[in-house]
Structure formats: C-alpha cells, structure tokens
C-alpha cells in the first residue's frame, strides 16, 4: 500500500502544471496572448500560453500606449501656433493644452526685411530709418553699386529726405563726360524701366570726387548729397546720394509724400557730352548743361 502511494506522487511531479495527467512535458517557452488591449492611459494584460498544452503559465501587463499627439503648430511672425492638440488614437480624443509657446512672433527686422519670414518692414510713403520717406520698394531687391565693386550690395528700399536740400546747385562742369557715371544718350533709353536704379550712389561718388577742388560755386549737386549727414536716435546716416535719373523718376512719382516738391531736380545721370538729366516735378526728364546753376537737389539713400 505504501509503495503504490509513492508512485502516484511521482507521476504528479513529472506533469508539472499540466491538466492532462498523462502528459509529462515541461512547458515550452510559449506564446503571449493579449487578454486586454492597452489604451492611451490604461495598461493591458497578456498571458503566456504553453505551446503544447495551452496552459497559462505566466501573466504580465502591457504598458499604456500614451497619447499620440500631432506636432504642435509652430507660431510664425503673422499667425499664432495652436494651443490645443487632440490625441489621434481612435476613441481617445484627449486634449493636450499648452499655456506658452504659441503666441505670434515679432518680426525680426534687419535692413527693413524680416530675417525669419522676409516680410518687408516699409511701404512707399512710410517714414524710413533715416527719417526720410520711402519712395521705392523692391521685393526682390536690386544692386546698389559702389565705386568699389566689393561694396556692391543688394538693397530693397530707396528713402529720400523729406525735403529737398536748401540751395540751388550746379551738376558740375560741362567740359567732359565723366567716366563711370550712368549715361543715357536718348530719351528712349529712359523708357527702359529701372535701368539706372542702383547707380545713383556710385555716380555720386565719382562726380563728387571728380569735382573736388574745381572751385565750383556755389554747390555741386553730388557733393551736397555726399556730404549730407542725418542722425536719428543716435544712428548716423551719411550714405546719401544724388539719385540717378530712374531713381529720380521714382521719387517724383511719389512727390505727394514730400515737402513742397516743386521745381526741377538734378539726377546723377549724364547726357553726352556736356549735359546731365534733369526732371521737373510736373514734366518729363530732359538734358541740361551741367553748368546750369539753378536746379534743386533731393538727396536719397538706399538700404
Ligand atoms: Zn504545458
Ligand atoms: Zn490618447
Ligand atoms: Zn517675420
């Protein structure tokens, strides 16, 4: 009787965990089966079933999935970002709300252009950084030429002093065509839109240097502009120049924004051999002897 009892116990020990009293295997590594799917916030559960006998011999949790939010919409210079985003997992709809980081950004202006979004700070008629009036805007920019080509640069605006310079001026002497100064040989050339835009500064540099020490009385138009200096909020603006004829045409187009803009104005552009282009606020450009004494100067700058 005692021997029989021992044999029964041995059979039970071999069939570890099996319901089938006749099976004597050890459970194999098995496969996990999900019992309860996790969702965003709740853990799930899973069971490890023996491949052979299907008995569950381990259980475990499945980590909660966490919410699946889309990226925040970033704010730009002109639009706010979103302050709420919604979990995209089916059936969740949980909202995530932020209290900072979505406000509209400030434009970050450098030379009148936002470095973040390219927004242009000024429109025609606005007061410019030097206290003058913006009279020409180019969204794509244009080249501002310098006598030193290394100093050529792309600019977007032309700004003119609010008022013309005080005194009537002479362009220069009429003895020669000055090399390197913008030169238009016919009225037809004026119709090439913007042909000399960007040339006024270089022209002014050349003319002012050329006329230096020549004893012109009373004033040389280019020198009046080159010598002009304006200080606004501690910043010195001494980059004024006599506008080229196309720059002057743009300026006169916007004459309503300026103080008392009547009369005739010098441009920096020449007409061979002894004339320069002049324009009246009520007329069209025409060449006049460079020695003429009685015309106005309206200084401009570019940035
Ligand atoms: Zn088993
Ligand atoms: Zn969720
Ligand atoms: Zn911006």
Walk me through this protein's architecture.
By secondary structure, the chain is an alpha+beta fold. It folds into three domains: 2-62, no CATH class; 67-105, no CATH class; 109-302, no CATH class. Helices cover 15% and strands 25% of the residues. It has helices spanning 2-14, 187-190, 200-211, 221-226, 245-253; strands spanning 31-36, 44-49, 56-62, 84-86, 95-97, 109-110, 113-114, 133-144, 153-160, 230-232, 235-237, 264-271, 275-280, 286-289, 300-302. The strands form six sheets. It has a three-stranded antiparallel beta sheet, with no helix packed on it. The longest helix has 13 residues, at 2-14. The protein is rod-shaped. One zinc ion (ZN) binds at residues 77, 107, 114, 116-117, 119.
Summarize the structure.
This protein is of the alpha+beta class. Helices cover 15% and strands 25% of the residues. It has helices spanning 2-14, 187-190, 200-211, 221-226, 245-253, and strands at 31-36, 44-49, 56-62, 84-86, 95-97, 109-110, 113-114, 133-144, 153-160, 230-232, 235-237, 264-271, 275-280, 286-289, 300-302.
